[in-house]
Amino acid sequence: MSFKTTLTRMWLTRSFKPFLFTNEYDEELKFEDLDNLGLYVHIPFCERICNFCPYCKVKFEEELCNRYIDALIKEIHSVGNRYPGKKTTTSLYFGGGTPALAVGRLGEIISALEEHFIITEGIGVELHPSNVTPDMLRILKAAGVTKISIGIQSFGERFSRILGRNNTDPEVLKKALDEVSFETVSMDFIFALPGQTFEDIKSDIDTAFNCGANHVAIYPFIDFTFTSSKVKAMPKREKRALLDKITAYCTGKGYPRNSIWTFSSKEEARYSSMTRDNFLGFGCSATTLLRDRFKINTFSVEEYCKRVESGRLPTSLTIKFTTRQRMVYYLFWTAYSTKVDPKAFEEFFGVPLKKKYGLEFKLAELAGFLTRKDGIYTMTPKGAFYYHYYENFYTLAYIDKMWGIMRKEAFPEKIIL
Ligand SMILES: C[S@@+](CC[C@H](N)C(=O)[O-])C[C@H]1O[C@@H](n2cnc3c(N)ncnc32)[C@H](O)[C@@H]1O
Ligand code: SF4
Question: Each residue of 199-226: pLDDT tens digit?
Fold first, then answer.
């Protein structure tokens, strides 16, 4: 871990205490009294594996997939049964992997969740471009899906080749999306690939909005140490120039920025499983964030099934946050939406933001990272770039290390970050 990351963590958490993940609290899960609780379900199967992708996934096999979904439904009931009655939640997101590979059983998973939870803000599903057919979209819509997110990565043939993916025909997407509508149609892109110019990205954004998207997510390419991809990340300066141009282009077009990476063509279009105060995650590698806990399920599909079949929760590691650590975590993910509302912070923690991080916010304002309007802090383009930059650090310092270990060991004894 870099010295800079460690120092920042110590400053912000006001402690020398590192983040300690253990398997001491595997079965503890208290969510009864939490508001703004989201749900997430992970489906770890893909038809073909992309070598740049860090997510938990294996090659699709029907038998394994069915065994996995049986275990998933068992995990849902075992968590849901801890709450008497039905708990109100916000949204449900299916991610992966490629959730559409389990489309035949999606309805069953949703029904299992609806036995324990009331979903008030719709259901989102991540799709591979090859899933976008009128028939598939109709099935998803009939199952209650209201938002879809399609992993395009790039419409440019050269960049699809760099990423080892088949090229996507926008006309085919448009035809399917014209036939079946959703409240949010988001498309994912990766930028900062070798040789990529602003014109390439602008063309991707325009094509996305012309073929049926009302929301785009533009992620910088991250070169995870444990993936076998040979693609190298672009140097900081070039990346910044690209990001500034993307931001100026989208805001100039009047597309509201609703998170660090996302822009929409209409205000209501939203797709984010990250910016929620608390969430319950089901399936392998799924994370759960509660008042003072963060837990991660095992990354091994086989061990996940075995654990759940034996009647236990598939928790691999849990961290019991100190209040300061939880505050830092809260602020990090709230800032992802580019806005921090001091009132919401005070409601969540029962203490004013000013009292805990007044100095940091003042310094960030003076440095031009934030502006304050109607009491709410909003990130400037400069602030957004440094957030990007810091998130990249964070991803490589924490997520890369943790996922790297968890891909090899199903239930590590502990991880110290
Ligand atoms: C689980 S995948 C998307 C859904 C679907 N499986 C697909 O490939 O189309 C989620 C998104 O993460 C992003 N992503 C994956 N690997 C990445 C990397 N190394 N750097 C940056 N973004 C990445 C991609 O934009 C991808 O669409
Ligand atoms: S990018 Fe999508 S399709 Fe490719 S391996 Fe990752 S989850 Fe699977």
Answer: 999 999 999 999 999 999 999 898 888 8
**What is the distance in A from the centroid of ligand 1 to the CA of 97?**
9
Contact between residue 80 and residue 48 where contact means Cβ atoms under 8 Å apart: no
The answer to whether the CB of 185 falls within 8 A of the CB of 215 is yes
CA of 47 to the centre of ligand 2 (A): 9
Ligand 1 residue neighbourhood (C-beta within 6 Å) = 52-55, 95-96, 98, 126, 128, 151, 153, 188, 190, 219, 221-222, 224
**CA 17/CA 321 separation, integer angstroms:** 10
Taking the CA of residue 96 as reference, the ligand 2 atom at the shortest distance is 7
Query: Which residues, listed in sequence order, are joined to residue 289 by a DSSP beta bridge?
Result: 279, 294
Report yes or no: 27 and 313 within 8 Å, Cβ to Cβ.
yes
Reading the block at residue 200, the tokens are 């390439």
Q: Looking up tokens 């993916």, which residue turns up?
A: 165
Select from 220, 218, 222 the least CA-distant residue to 232: 222
- Taken in order of first residue, the domains within the chain and their CATH numbers are 1-17+323-411 (1.10.10), 21-264 (3.20.20.70)
Q: Whose CA is nearest to atom 6 of ligand 2?
A: 53
Distance (Å) from CA 58 to ligand 2 centroid: 9
**Protein residues whose CB sits closer than 6 Å to any atom of ligand 2:** 46, 49-50, 53, 55, 57, 96-98, 128, 151
State pLDDT tens for residues 387-404: 887 777 777 777 888 888
Please spell the DSSP secondary structure of 161-219, one letter per residue: HHHT-PPP-HHHHHHHHHHS--SEEEEEEEE--TT--HHHHHHHHHHHHHTT-SEEEEE
pTM tops 0.85: yes
